[in-house]
Specification:
213 residues; mainly beta; Jelly Rolls; 2 domains; seven-stranded antiparallel beta sheet; 18 strands
Amino acid sequence: MTIELTSGSAAADPIFYTLDGSFPTEKSLKYIKPFELNQTTTIKAFAITKNGNSGIGTLTISKIEFYNSTAEKKEFQKGLKYGYYEGDWKMLPDFASLTVIRQGTIKGIDFPEHRGEYFGVTYDGFIKVPVEGIYTFYLNSDDGSRLIIDDVEVTDNDGCHALTERNGKIALKAGYHKFHLIYFNGTLSSVMELYFAGPGIKKQPVPEQNFVH
């Protein structure tokens, strides 16, 4: 990635910067021309203007790691595996430590048969992404939910709350990726919706045909 530093005062203002997150001084690197970065870096810089030193600007550039497809298409079946639980929680519990009440498969992000309040659901399988790119996943839920892809927490929407949407990004290569989604409902309404957007894909519900197990 090419980095260009400019002064908001005048183009000729000298700029000094660091690449290790430390505060720059006039003994730091002097900006001469655009430079390349190929790893996660925190840049701190300041300019010397006619009125004195500018404030210090900080920018962190994060290197994106693409997650490889975690499975090859073979004996997949449509849909996801689900586990249904019941309990009174204020935050997402450790479902693995609880006794599952019912298990089965489901076509997509929908609730299996459940009681009106105080229940939780886990979803496991694989999600297929059509092309390599950076994908944004949106979790809209009442109450708490969390999305994990390839063992990476992508979106955390935990806690007791009214309908709330949160989102997160992950860089994925084309293919099938490990999928884990958890949800709990306390009182009143129960809602969970999963949307995504990516290369050539406007924000939309994740299609059922993208889920396999």
